[in-house]
Write a structure and sequence with these properties.
The protein is an alpha+beta fold. It is built from five helices and ten strands; from the N terminus they run αβββββαβααββββα. It has one domain. A hairpin with a 5-residue loop joins β3 and β4.
Length: 200
Amino acid sequence: MNRRTALASLALALATLTAPAQQPVASQQIVQPGALNVPSAVFTDSGQWSTLLPILSTPDVDLFIEDPSNDAWLFHNAASFIERGQYTVILVSFYKTLHACRADQIHAGFSDAEHLDPCNNYRYAVRRIAVDNPQSAVTVLFSAKVLSGGNLDDASIRRETHTRSLTELDTNAQKALADATKLIARESRSYAIRQQPSAQ
C-alpha cells in the first residue's frame, strides 16, 4: 500500500460530516502559513499558538500535530497520558494539491460539486482528536476546513464526535499515530519529572 493510499485511509478514518457547503466565510486565523504555505503553527484551545510537527507526508498531503513538548499542552495531557494512556491533540492536514481536499470530501461521502468546489479555497483541514491507547480508539472531537490565508471557514465546522478503532486504520496510518504517541510519551514523562519537587 503506498503512502497516498495510507493517508487517504487516515483521512477517511478521521473524517466527520461536513456542514452544508456554502461560500467560505473567513473567521479567525487558526493556522499560520509558513514558507511555501507549509503550516508552521496552529491556534489551540488554550488560546496560544503551537508549533506544528510533521508526522506523515505524501505527494498530495502532509499531516502535522501540535507540539507535544509545549508546557501548555503537557499541563492538560501529560497526567492523563501517564495514568490512562489518553491524550487529545490537534492534527493539521496541509493540502498540497486540489485533489487532496477533494479526496477528503469524497471520503467523507460528499462527491457533488456543491461540496467539492469549496476546495478551490481550502488549503488546510484541522481536526482535534482524542486518542485512547488502552482501548485502541481515536475520536474526532472537532473538524473544520481552513482557507489559504489560515483563516477558519465557519461553515465547515463540525463538533460531532466520531470514534473508530485504531485497528481500522491501515498500517502506515497506524504507524503515524504510533510515532506521535511515542513522542507524546517521551515528552509527558519528561514533563512529569520536571514537575517533581527537587531534593534539597
